[in-house]
Amino acid sequence: MYSTHFKLDIKDIPAYVEAKLNFFGKTEGLEIKELSDGNINYVYKIVDPATNRSLILKQADICLRSSGRPLDVKRSEIEASMLQIQHKLAPEMIPEVYLYDQAMSVTFMEDVSEFKNFRYEMMERKVFPSFHKQINSYFAKTALGTTDLVLNRAEKKANVSKFTNVELCDISEDLVFTEPFNDYKGRNILTKGNEAYVQEHIYGNTALVSEAMKLRYNFMNNAQALIHGDLHSGSIFINHTGIKVLDPEFAFYGPIGYDIGNVIAHLVMPAMVCQVTDSESEAKDNFINWIASTVPAILFGFEREFKKSYLEMVQEDVAKNEIFVDWYTRQIVADAKGYAGLEIIRRVIGDTKVKELETIADHDQRIAVERKLIDLASSLILQRDVEGQDLHSLLSALNG
């Protein structure tokens, strides 16, 4: 039994847990709750009320939940392997994997319920003054440690092959880099009243499209480090003591700046929604001021944190050349700005929206938020190599 894949139902889980993992001992009386909040996986929290011990079971199915379209379960193996690698590099930020069952595409992992979903916390206008330090520490520890500046070059090349993530990279290459600029599959969803604005400022903006294609080329060909690949605010869990980074099933070897840019985009979007839709209040001011200070702190703090880790972890003397280190780090920061812009655009006009935008009830406010985001995203993409100018645009946009 359990030698071939089938989708677990809640009623199947106690026997399956008992067969696979000596975590609870006897499994009578386990409390099981589904936590799934996505389209491609099934996630359950399992608790023994007698001891209060708990864990998470995550299973990848062979089909998308929404459409039934087949999807390779290799993503599950990639996710488990990524978590195991990152847990060694940053154990305080990554849930521990207790067991991975390849046949069933199931990962048993640490329950991190004391941390809350970062997206929903921001939607409640909560602020986390230490977030920039925590996320920069995550980037410096997990990204650099998987490059061929630190790893043996042969080991890194083997990892590139192991983490070749064809189907999920193809999803990103379409939804993030291609469809927002020509809608060749007809899947973009434009807010009524913004059609002409999108045509002028995105589809018909040759300079923007060309820069987006440069960033796509970099995404597809720059096997710089093992990256998360889908690091939005829903993949980060947070409290006032730290963060946990989850769900790296899109992981592959790509540009470090892609993950950083995704984090920035998912800070900017709720801040812009707040700026346009919220009534004047201390909570609104605090939230916007926090985002306006956090984004530059991530970018500039990344440079400092990354260079510090670089000098500690990189052993080759020739790679420690100051000019090279500065160039290497600046390229990552420029990439991050560009990828932030692309993530914003695809969430505004693509078919995969974010809850922050979807919850705007007033049509005129929705139009205003989307246009501000498109303008800001364009600035981030077009001026990513001009130090400071894009951040000036960000601060101006958030200040109304």
From TrEMBL:
GO molecular function annotations of the record: kinase activity
EC number(s) per entry: 2.7.1.100
Keywords: ATP-binding, Kinase, Nucleotide-binding, Transferase
InterPro entries assigned: Aminoglycoside_PTrfase (IPR002575), Kinase-like_dom_sf (IPR011009), Methylthioribose_kinase (IPR009212)
A Pfam family the protein falls into: APH
Domain Aminoglycoside phosphotransferase: 223-269
Source species, domain of life: Bacteria
Subunit structure: Homodimer.
Entry's family note: Belongs to the methylthioribose kinase family.
PANTHER family assigned to the protein according to its UniProt record, in alphabetical order: METHYLTHIORIBOSE KINASE
Name listed for the protein in its UniProt record: S-methyl-5-thioribose kinase
Source species of the chain: Vibrio stylophorae
